Amino acid sequence: MDWDHIDRNEYFYKKFDFEVNLNHEERDGNILWINPSKSGSIEDYQSLNYKPGIAGLMQELSEIEDKF
Q1: Which of 47, 49, 51, 66 could form a disulfide with 55 if both were Cys (CB 3.0 to 4.6 A apart)?
Q2: Structural domain count, the chain
Q3: What average pLDDT does this structure show over 48-62?
């Protein structure tokens, strides 16, 4: 994310119904879009217990490693 223009980006994504969770102090967060044509919701996404970004990738790799 380009933190020099975060306010403009945040406004844009919220305007188009993205789920925006940003921590401005830590310069961290995520922007999520749920495809409405798939009848999804933020609750469905959260029920998957998936973390976006690098945290999600690390979680996936850890789960794969645990299987072996």
Answers
A1: 51
A2: 1
A3: 73
Which domain covers residue 59, as residue numbers? 3-67
| Residue 50 C-beta-side C-alpha neighbours within 13 Å | 12
The Cα 11–Cα 19 span in angstroms is 11
CA-based torsion, 47, 51, 56, 62: positive or negative: negative
Q: How far is CA 54 from CA 26, 27, 38, 66, in A?
A: 15, 14, 25, 18
Cβ contacts of 46 within 8 Å, gap of 6 or more: none
> pTM of the entire structure?
0.51
